[in-house]
Design brief:
Helices cover 86% and strands 0% of the residues. It contains three helices and no strands.
């Protein structure tokens, strides 16, 4: 196997381990929240971002004409909320 293939394989393995760690951490946090009466469910937040972020970025882009500035402005607004 050449060096490029080995690097790609290692990157894939590291990405897989990272995703497993994040998934386990989130599920552990959700389970703790269920036992302590707290909510750690990210579904409403993800749904809100999926529904409102693209139109907000498009509107800001139409106003400014610069994609990077539009995304930075809208991302800052969403982070503040």
């Amino acid at each position: 196997m050449n060096q490029g293939g080995q690097l790609l394989l290692m990157a894939g393995l590291l990405m897989t381990l990272t995703m497993l760690t994040v998934t386990l951490s989130i599920s552990h946090s959700v389970n703790l929240g269920l036992h302590q009466g707290e909510r750690h469910d990210l579904s409403p937040l993800v749904s809100m971002l999926d529904a409102h972020l693209p139109p907000a970025v498009q509107a800001e882009y139409d106003r400014t004409g610069d994609a990077a500035t539009a995304f930075d402005t809208v991302a800052a607004d969403f982070e503040d909320r």
